[in-house]
């Protein structure tokens, strides 16, 4: 499926004091392992964690400026380190088994910024062998056919691989908040408290942390005992702390901020692992795995879980599409495009008929066809510039189907040109507001680029456009796509959804978010009821893709009509006395255009009842 993720801009988290914490360059290392940062050019250790002597028995000064092999007296381990140091090597068969001081270790290596990171972790056995973990995970994920069933199966599999006390599946929602959508406890869990259904404030995951999570890297914290500094040599040969000089984005051993350690201790957690679930460059959610006591998960198990998260999100996209009946909606879109084409043939045929006596009847018939097709035919007939339809009536089935296509509460179709027209369906802002929103694309809202999908979606329009509370209530969700290249557009709307949320602790106020409080460990996780507002139901990526495809199909149909010659060419307006002007391809008019919106010239002579109706119709191409 073509990715539409870059075209979806959901509600933005409120600014917070700790958003700019230099987490990737924190300058510390978790105490359970040793980190060596080696120059790829010289093979010498430039930085090493302060605990190297405690774990490997080698003083810091003996390593800095020397090859890392000096830390290993075992010939086999030294040879494996030399193999890791081969010039030009960028890929590694992780993990590499090592021995030091009679203890077994594993080295996990990667290269970043022309630096080789060698992370040395204690060896522990996995709960199960690699093949068993992979097969069990695959079997469990593939058989699920509902979204909630998949959530529950994934948390069970996380427990199977880790054997931790509690597994939570945490899904990000609008404005950066998260909700626990599934939870699994070990039979003898030492962490019996449940957070299922609880919401967590966006402030619990700083924006810089999300930047790291977008890499898909697992975050393991087997102990909450703090971190040790990364050390290097100063200009005078003195040993000093490395500070923020090393980017540890991809490092397993990257240190933990004291605030984070305190957060977990206040939850009663001695060890935790975070597995990000990513779609393209977006963090969909997190598997958060807790254990009361300190516990370490080996490299193979972590790799299995990273594979499990990829299988999970791939299957989730499929199951969400099935539950949303996307196959049926795809077929509906194809049928609607065919109806538009057939309707255009009717419009062309009716407009080509000669004779003055039946002019009013012909124009009324054309108006009925145009209304039925929701103004999406290449040419159409509008009434007074604005049509408003409440779906549900048989004659408005096409309009109802247009809402079904995107599972929307309302829709608007805008036709530009000399005689601008707005067709409103269901629950929408008024015509002037809709035109104003259209005019924001390319300024406050992103423009419709030719590449990457010509579509835009958000669940929190109020974050991006200056709309009133009333408009936010009926149009927090916006899905929009251009029709052709003249400024015409189709929009779908979703109402704001106000959730009576149960929060894990009281969410911080704006003043608290921008205070030193954000650098203190949170201790309040008691249930707190407060509404969560400002966003609609989120648009599925499959829905955004279908909207883009539908708009593109309609646009291509218009282009074919403009290039070709209709079977029965419509008569010029001069041949139809008393009827409004006909424009084949009017020049586009910029949005918004509220002044005089929908006003058409009135005829100078008295008209019959039928002719008076027709005088309010405009034939537009």
| Low-confidence spans | 565-621
- Determine the strand fraction and express it as a percent band: 15-25%
Treating each run of at least 4 consecutive H or I residues as one helix, how many helices? 16
Classify the secondary structure makeup into a structural class: alpha+beta
Separation of the first and last Cα atoms:
34 Å
What would you call the shape? Answer: elongated
Number of strand segments: 25
Bin the helical content: 25-40%
Spatial extent as radius of gyration: 31 Å
Describe the largest sheet: 8 strands, antiparallel
Mean pLDDT: 84
How would you portray this structure in words?
With 621 residues, this protein is α+β, with helices and mostly antiparallel strands. Strands 1, 2, 3, 4, 5, 6, 11 and 12 form an eight-stranded antiparallel beta sheet that branches. Strands 9-8-7-14-13-10 form a six-stranded antiparallel beta sheet. A six-stranded mixed beta sheet has the order 16-18-17-21-20-19, sandwiched between helices. A hairpin with a 5-residue loop joins strand 7 (166-172) and strand 8 (178-185). The two termini are 34 Å apart.
């Amino acid at each position: 499926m073509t990715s539409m993720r870059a075209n979806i801009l959901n509600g933005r988290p409120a600014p917070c004091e700790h958003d700019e914490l230099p987490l990737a360059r924190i300058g510390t290392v978790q105490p359970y392992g040793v980190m060596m940062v080696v120059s790829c050019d010289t093979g010498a250790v430039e930085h090493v964690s302060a605990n190297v002597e405690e774990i490997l028995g080698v003083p810091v000064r003996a390593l800095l400026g020397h090859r890392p092999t000096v830390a290993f007296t075992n010939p086999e381990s030294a040879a494996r380190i030399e193999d890791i140091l081969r010039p030009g090597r960028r890929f590694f068969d992780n993990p590499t088994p090592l021995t030091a001081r009679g203890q077994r270790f594993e080295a996990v290596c990667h290269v970043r910024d022309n630096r080789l990171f060698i992370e040395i972790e204690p060896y522990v056995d996995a709960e199960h062998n690699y093949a068993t973990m992979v097969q069990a995970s695959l079997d469990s994920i593939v058989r699920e056919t509902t979204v909630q069933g998949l959530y529950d199966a994934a948390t069970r599999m996380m427990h199977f691989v880790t054997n931790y006390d509690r597994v939570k599946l945490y899904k990000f929602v609008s404005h950066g908040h998260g909700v626990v959508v599934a939870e699994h406890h070990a039979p003898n869990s030492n962490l019996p408290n449940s957070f299922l259904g609880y919401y967590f404030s966006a402030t619990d995951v700083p924006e810089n942390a999300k930047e790291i999570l977008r890499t898909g890297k697992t975050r393991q914290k087997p102990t909450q005992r703090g971190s040790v500094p990364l050390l290097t040599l100063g200009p005078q040969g003195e040993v000093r702390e490395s500070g923020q000089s090393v980017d540890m984005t991809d490092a397993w051993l990257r240190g933990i901020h004291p605030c984070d350690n305190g957060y977990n201790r206040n939850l009663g957690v001695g060890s935790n692992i975070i597995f990000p679930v990513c779609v393209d460059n977006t963090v969909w959610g997190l598997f958060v795995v807790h254990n009361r006591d300190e516990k370490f998960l080996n490299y193979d198990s972590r790799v299995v879980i990273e594979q499990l998260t990829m299988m999970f999100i791939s299957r989730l996209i499929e199951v969400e599409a099935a539950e949303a009946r996307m196959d049926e909606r795809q077929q509906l879109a194809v049928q609607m495009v065919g109806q538009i084409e057939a309707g255009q043939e009717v419009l062309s045929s009716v407009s080509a008929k000669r004779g003055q006596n039946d002019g009013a009847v012909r124009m009324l018939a054309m108006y009925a066809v145009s209304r039925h097709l929701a103004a999406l035919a290449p040419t159409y007939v509008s009434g007074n510039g604005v049509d408003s339809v409440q779906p549900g009536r048989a004659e408005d089935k096409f309009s109802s189907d247009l809402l079904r296509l995107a599972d929307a509460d309302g829709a608007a179709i805008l036709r530009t040109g000399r005689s601008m027209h707005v067709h409103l369906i269901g629950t929408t802002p008024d015509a002037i507001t809709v035109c104003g929103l259209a005019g924001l694309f390319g300024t406050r809202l992103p423009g419709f680029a030719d590449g990457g999908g010509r579509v835009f979606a958000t669940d929190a329009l109020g974050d991006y456009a200056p709309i009133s509370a009333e408009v936010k209530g009926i149009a927090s969700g916006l899905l929009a796509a251009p029709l052709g290249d003249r400024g015409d557009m189709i929009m779908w709307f979703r109402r704001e959804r106000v959730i009576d949320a149960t929060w894990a602790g009281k969410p911080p106020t704006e003043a608290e978010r921008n205070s030193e409080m954000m650098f203190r460990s949170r201790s309040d996780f008691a249930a707190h009821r407060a509404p969560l507002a400002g966003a609609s139901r989120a648009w599925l990526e499959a829905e955004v893709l279908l909207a883009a495809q539908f708009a593109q199909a309609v646009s291509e149909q218009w282009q074919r009509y403009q290039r070709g010659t209709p079977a029965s060419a419509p008569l010029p307006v001069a041949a139809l006395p008393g009827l409004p002007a006909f424009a084949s391809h009017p020049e586009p008019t910029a949005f918004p255009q509220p002044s005089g919106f929908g006003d058409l010239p009135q005829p100078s002579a008295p008209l019959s009842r039928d002719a008076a109706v027709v005088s309010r119709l405009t034939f537009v191409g």
